[in-house]
Every structure is written in C-alpha cells, then in structure tokens.
Amino acid sequence: MTPSQRFLAACRRQPVDRTPVWFMRQAGRIFPEFRALRRQYGFVELMQHPDLCAEITVMPVERLGVDAAILFADIMTPLQPLGVDYRIEPGVGPVVGQPLAAAADLGRLRRFDPREELAPVLETVRLVRRALGDRVPLIGFAGAPFTLACYLIEGRPSREFHRARALMYGDPAFWHGLMERLAETVLDYLRAQVEAGVQAVQLFDSWVGGLGPAAYRRFVLPYSRRVLEGLGDLGVPRIHFGTGNAALLPLMAQAGAEVVGVDWRVDLDRAWEAIGPDKAIQGNLDPAALLAPFDQVEEQARDVLRRAAGRPGHIFNLGHGVLPETPVDHLRRLVELVHRVTERPAEPEPEPVAGA
Ligand SMILES: Cc1c2[nH]c(c1CCC(=O)O)Cc1[nH]c(c(CCC(=O)O)c1C)Cc1[nH]c(c(CCC(=O)O)c1C)Cc1[nH]c(c(C)c1CCC(=O)O)C2
Question: Does 8 score more than 90 pLDDT?
Fold first, then answer.
C-alpha cells in the first residue's frame, strides 16, 4: 500500500498499512508564509489566485507529512456568487453585510453555475492535483446548509445562534426555503469540485451541536441528506463532520456519508458505537492538547488510538480545526507518532499457484 491509498482505503473501512492522519484547518493559518500573504491580500481576494491557493493547499503535505490535502477555500466561498456580500474579519470570522431575516429576503439569492462563477476554486483543484501527483489525495469541502444558514441569519459568528434557531421555529416557511436553496447550492458546488478532481468531500456542520435531536431531525437532516445522497453516484467518499452534541451522532450517521467526523467531547469508542460499525470514523484529539508539551500530546493521541483499537475505518484527526497558535513541529511529530504506533506488517503477497 502506498501512502496515497491509505486515506481513501480507510474511508472505505479497508485495512491499511498505517492509520491515515490529516488535520482540519491544516491549510493556512499555522504557517508564517500564509500570514505574510494575508498582509498582502484580503481573504476573499486571495480566493481569486488559484496559484497561491494551490501552494497553501500543498504546504501541509510537504511540511507535516499528512495523508491528505484539503482544498484551501472557506465555507463562505460559494455565498458570494449567491449574492451575499461578506468579509472575513481577522480575529472574528465571517461577517455578512446584510443578514437574511424573512422569506422576502430569499429573493436576493441568485442562481449561478459554480463552473463559471467559482472557476478560480475549481482551477485550484486542478493545480493541486497536478502538484500532488499520486502523493496524497485531495479533499474538497463545503459548509453544511445549517451552518451556512446560521451565518446568513446572524451575520457574524455567535456563541449560540439564537436568532437562527428562533427563526427556524418561528418562520418554518422561511427556514425550509432557505435550507432548500443552500442544499441545492452546496450540492452543485461539491459536484463541480469532484468533476474538477477532488477525491473525497467533507461537509462541515460546525455549529449543528447547538440543536437537540428532534430539531435536528426535522429542520436539518433532510437537507444534509439531500447534499450527501446527491453525491452518491460520483463514487468519492463523503465525510460528515459536526461538533458539540454527541446525541446527534446516530442521526448524522443516517445522512448518507461513509465517514462521520467527531469532535473531542465524546470518547472515540463510544462515538463509534453511536454511529455504528458500518461507518468509518474521523477524529478526535482535542485541538487544545496540541498547545501542551509534546508528552501530553502523545498521551492524548495514544488514548484516541487505543479506543480505535486498530479497527479498519479510523482516520486520525483533531476534534475540530487546528488552533492558529499550534506549534507546527507538534503537528509534524504527531503525524510521525500516529504512523509509528499504528504500523502494521505488510499483507503477505499471495503465493503463486503452481501450474497457473
Ligand atoms: C466555521 C468554518 C469557517 N470556515 C470553515 C469552517 C468549518 C470548519 C470549522 O468549524 O473550523 C472551513 C475552512 N476554512 C478554511 C479552510 C481551508 C482548508 C483547511 O485548512 O482546512 C476550511 C476547511 C480556511 C480559512 N478560513 C478562514 C481563515 C483565516 C483567514 C484569515 O487569515 O483571516 C482560513 C485559513 C476564515 C474563517 N472562516 C470561518 C471562520 C470562523 C474564520 C475565522 C477564524 C479562523 O481563522 O478560523 C468560517
């Protein structure tokens, strides 16, 4: 098995020579070169430069030795052609110019072809595939309809997304109309990424943990399912990630992905029981552990691996994105540790059959 096959094999719960590892938010923020670029370009402007985005995407593969690259873009990227004006404010996050408040606002959302209006992102995919060759696969991604709806309604990051949740219960016609448009947009965008060459996709539902299971089932699951099932004919593994509420895991596992990404608030073995043995699992080291001395990182990482117990279908990752102040060297040593601890003897070559 070559390193290039490890990640995709684990997504399909096939045996691997070492547990594959990559980190959410590995592209950008932790590298000084990225911070220098950001002094030159606004985040949205940077998206118009496929050559630079490709370079940022490939950087963690070279520096950290991870088993997959993730496209450098943002969950907000497809919202601009949809007609939503936003900026990324350093230290805050996405800020939307005119948040949506009622069904009448849905008329502001445009229909668009991602192949045309997000051409620079798709060009980044093609450049990265060329640069990586068969070293490691490239993961594409999008924000899930719920998490995007939260930003569109609140207008900026919020701890609990009260306004979004209130509108969800109080104006279901608006809510379902918005979720339908977002599901359609995200599906079309992800299909375009796969056509351009991404080899797996991750749907980020970062803020979904603010909901309980009944609300999730009614207001969110149908739309995440529409996106994930709508990719089914393309044959690429689908990863479905959410944070904050382990009680949602059995429902998230029903949305149509092969892999469920779990945060650090649940033990990996318990999470695997919750999603079922027919799913692969991704996670779940606490990103804050990486700010501690490396012997603590090692202890926490070994605990995750012990709970995975060598079962096929574990992709090592953090429970959420890499924190910006994480020492790059800790990440590099963590990749090496996961590979070393999980190394399995190569499968013996089958004996040639005499006379065949
Ligand atoms: C909620 C969310 C966002 N963006 C994303 C999510 C889902 C994952 C998660 O929950 O962490 C996803 C994302 N954003 C970015 C990527 C690129 C690939 C990667 O490294 O994983 C990915 C996969 C680049 C980025 N997206 C952003 C940056 C920092 C931009 C800057 O330099 O100002 C990067 C590298 C901006 C952004 N974009 C967002 C926030 C909250 C912020 C600001 C805070 C931050 O730095 O994380 C929204």
Answer: yes
